[in-house]
Design goal:
InterPro entries: Endo/exonu/phosph_ase_sf (IPR036691). The protein is of the alpha+beta class. The chain folds into two domains: 97 residues, no CATH class; 31 residues, no CATH class. It is 25% helix and 21% strand. It is built from four helices and eight strands, in the order E-H-E-E-E-E-E-H-E-E-H-H. A hairpin with a 2-residue loop joins strand 4 and strand 5. It starts with 5 loop residues before the first strand and ends with a helix.
């Protein structure tokens, strides 16, 4: 959307303008983001390209209902895109509101499949409880 949201490669002012027009036509606001500046990375012939392609948007009514909400750009794991996380202030302080974060190393544990099967087999948990 802005030239500052692009490092390396080409920035297209006309495409950025078209995107802004769509946001305006739909009465949407970019919520911005904390943490990482870019959400997409690619190494092209030894040059690292980085852009803020992923974003959260909302309308004014939603923003008025959730004024404390904010977005975090998280570290990428298996994709060239970084996940984005919508948070509300204060949710970090409560253990039950913390997001589940899967550690890729867990999948290498020799009892991983058995542990997961047993955990999910105990009851019919919600996705959050199962995780």
């Amino acid at each position: 959307m802005l030239s500052s949201e692009c490092r390396g490669g080409r920035f297209s002012p006309s495409r950025a303008s078209q995107f802004l027009d769509v946001l305006n036509d739909c009465n949407l606001l970019d919520m911005g983001a904390k943490c990482l500046r870019f959400t997409w990375y690619r190494n092209q012939r030894g040059v690292v390209l980085a852009k803020r392609l992923d974003r959260a948007v909302c309308n004014v009514e939603w923003q008025a209902m959730f004024p404390e909400a904010y977005v975090e750009n998280l570290c990428m794991v298996y994709s060239d895109h970084c996940p984005i996380l919508l948070r509300r202030k204060g949710s970090r302080d409560k253990a039950q509101d913390r997001p589940f974060r899967f550690q890729a190393a867990w999948a290498t544990h020799k009892g991983f499949e058995r542990i997961v099967r047993e955990a999910w087999g105990r009851s019919t948990p919600t996705l959050a409880n199962g995780l």
